[in-house]
Design a protein that fits this description.
About 45% of the residues lie in helices and about 15% in strands. With about 400 residues, it is an alpha/beta fold. Strand 5, helix 11 and strand 6 form a beta-alpha-beta unit. Helix 4 (about 45-70) runs antiparallel to helix 5. The longest helix is centred in the N-terminal third of the chain and has 24 residues, at about 45-70. It starts with 8 loop residues before the first helix and ends with a helix.
């Protein structure tokens, strides 16, 4: 993995994620250069300065976008709003929950990214998925150009990403180019659902899946029998868990396996493996709605696919990086070995020589994204062939 900040895994992960999700190397360098010395003090130190430095570049881009829009250059404006949003969402995830900048920055991010949709990607709009008396905020990237029903993928994030990270990855736009719509959802414990609505994560993710499928089946531009579910990072637990109980799904993808996330937390208490974000335990307790680590660790024993993934019946893809420093690759093999009742099962492990060998392939995200897109296309072809036969 490219190491802008030698030895600081978490900050480096943020840099490569941004460079693989629409960031420009000059802009990322200008955001990082003022804080290079702080990186030597560890991932938790200097995150406020990290935010300030990245925000300066994001604000400059937003100012340029505003000027371009006023001059009638809407594509230039939309592209700059997009990159401003990409930097804001990466910097916001680094903050401590106690930072007074966290929620205002996230709210501003929502405004900036939605302005980019309006100017350069009108196929993507904000939608709300009804859920337990409230809603799950989401973006819908629509591949249907004439209103006719097309296959659709529900996309979920993980412990620390948001629907904005999913959109900025470029994967929803790529899928739409292939004729497949993407619903990018902030589930409980993530993004807007957590930050602005206080919805926290839970073991039973099938409720989220049922809400998403139910919403999509109300849309005339969605083919109801061709809905799939993709999730990265902690989504590698969320998705197979949901697919084990929500059998309206045609396929499921664990973009980074997470067979026994509860067990991984015990290892992290012993400082084994890397953390994904600074202020790790503070973040984990916030996501899951717990107040102390011992109680949470006991609860997290239930965040496992043991005895669950055998109930997945749809087509299943599991991808993983061979050198993932957060989630050991053996957990990907365990998920694959136990998914014995899936309509089909595929395991793809990415190696250091090809790249995408780090967590969810963040060191070469387009490589994993292309493989996953191809697998989905092939799976849909198989489904259509079987229905004709």
């Amino acid at each position: 993995m490219f190491e802008y900040f030698p030895g600081n895994y978490i900050w480096n992960l943020g840099v490569v994620a941004t460079l693989n999700s629409g960031g420009m190397i000059d802009e990322v360098d200008r955001a990082c250069r003022p804080i290079r010395d702080l990186a030597d003090k560890g991932a938790d130190v200097g995150t406020q300065q990290f935010m300030s430095s990245w925000r300066a570049v994001a604000d400059q881009l937003e100012s340029q976008a505003t000027a371009a829009e006023a001059a009638g250059h809407e594509r230039t404006a939309g592209q700059k709003y997009f990159r401003s949003a990409a930097y804001l969402c990466q910097a916001e995830r680094m903050l401590s929950n106690s930072s007074p900048d966290r929620i205002p920055t996230y709210k501003h991010l929502l405004e900036v990214i939605e302005r980019s949709f309006e100017l350069v990607d009108p196929a993507t709009t904000r939608v709300e998925v009804p859920f337990e008396g409230t809603t799950l905020p989401a973006y819908f990237t629509n591949a249907s150009t004439d209103g006719s029903p097309v296959p659709t993928v529900i996309m979920w994030n993980g412990l620390d990403s948001t629907k904005e990270h999913m959109y900025c990855s470029g994967w929803p736009t790529e899928m739409a180019a292939r004729g497949i719509s993407v619903l990018q959802v902030d589930c409980p414990g993530s993004g807007e659902a957590l930050r602005l609505q206080g919805l926290t994560a839970r073991i039973e993710t099938e409720g989220w899946a049922s809400a998403c499928v139910g919403y999509l089946q109300t849309r005339a531009d969605v083919r109801a029998d061709r809905i799939g579910l993709v999730g990265w990072s902690l989504g590698g637990y969320y998705v197979p868990r949901a697919a084990a109980f929500e059998h309206r799904l045609a396929f499921a993808v664990a973009w980074g396996a997470n067979h026994n996330w509860g067990g991984v937390q015990k290892r992290r208490l012993e400082r084994e493996g890397e953390n994904p974000v600074p202020h790790y335990w503070e973040h984990v307790l916030w996501v899951w709605g717990h107040s102390d680590i011992p109680t949470f660790i006991e609860y997290a024993e239930g965040v496992t696919l043991e005895g669950v993934i055998e109930q997945v019946r749809c087509h299943l893809l599991i991808t993983h990086g061979e050198k993932d420093r957060q989630i050991p690759v053996e957990l990907a093999y365990r998920s694959y070995d136990q998914a014995t009742n899936a309509a089909s099962r595929t395991l793809r492990v990415f190696t250091p020589d090809e790249g995408a060998t780090e967590h969810i392939g963040l060191d070469h995200l387009p490589h994993v994204g292309a493989y996953t897109a191809d697998w989905i296309e092939d799976t849909l072809t198989t489904l259509d062939s079987n229905s004709l036969g």
